[in-house]
Write a structure and sequence with these properties.
Length: about 110
């Protein structure tokens, strides 16, 4: 069940489901390409202004669709995309922290004390 929820708590899944329903107002359960494009620009806003971010968003979208049994973008793919977006943001945050630590005059022990 945890895998089906992509690691989210049930409450978070319901929040994502409500968000997905904003893109699927007719409750078809899957989205046409035009709405998928809207999701991509909403979930990855920098992808509309940065070539590197556009490529990154396309890669994550491709991975989200990889396990799909068809070419439809439905809630499972949306939830997978949200998980990857959250993981990606966390990795970026950690990378920024490591860069800040490396650029500081503090030792690792001093940083860990914070």
């Amino acid at each position: 069940e945890l895998a089906a929820r992509e690691g989210f708590e049930q409450e978070q899944v319901e929040e994502h489901r409500a968000l997905f329903q904003n893109y699927d107002p007719d409750a078809a359960g899957h989205l046409p390409p035009k709405r998928v494009s809207k999701i991509m620009s909403d979930v990855f806003p920098l992808s509309t202004v940065s070539h590197q971010e556009h490529i990154r968003a396309k890669l994550l979208f491709g991975i989200a669709m990889c396990d799909s049994k068809g070419s439809c973008f439905g809630f499972p793919e949306f939830l997978r995309l949200q998980r990857m977006r959250a993981d990606d943001a966390e990795h970026r945050r950690l990378d920024e922290e490591l860069e800040a630590i490396a650029g500081s005059a503090y030792s690792l022990e001093e940083v860990e004390e914070f």
